[in-house]
Amino acid sequence: MKRRFFIAALGAAAVTPAIFTKISAREAGNESTSSAKIVRSDEDWRQLLTETEYDVLRNEGTERPGSSPLNAEKRAGTYVCAGCEQPLFLSDTKYESGTGWPSFFAPIDGALGTKTDYKLIWPRTEYHCSRCGGHQGHIFKDGPEPTGLRYCNNGVALKFVPAEGDS
Ligand SMILES: [Zn+2]
Fold this sequence. Notes:
By secondary structure, this protein is α+β, with helices and mostly antiparallel strands. It has three helices and nine strands; from the N terminus they run H-H-H-E-E-E-E-E-E-E-E-E. A hairpin with a 6-residue loop joins strand 5 (about 110-115) and strand 6. It is globular. Bound molecules: zinc ion (ZN). Zinc ion binds next to loops.
């Protein structure tokens, strides 16, 4: 009995590092994106990300306001997911919200999924990368035109890729 359990456990351990499981966009359901999903085990994410990145992306943590160098980033370019590098925002949708978090008024089409979160008791709209599921921030309705929305993003969950010729 013990021996059988041991062998079963070994088998499970060998299968678990299925690091890279791709699911087609159609199978993935309502989050519309053409890119295949990235599914990693919690252990793999811990290895791949820094502690702060892990806390925000995989644990829906919130970075300290004003802590991200991306607050001051003004160059033309693309903001990609720090977990999987899917492009999430373009620099021309970024604006200074004064909150201490990088803020955008619109994402790239299909780049984000959303859900309602009740962490602060009242409901907020959480959003995450549609490819790896990594938490990015929350949407508020006090943004500028044309959308009137503020995508309040954790800077640590993003990486900035300057446009060619603007580095
Ligand atoms: Zn991602």
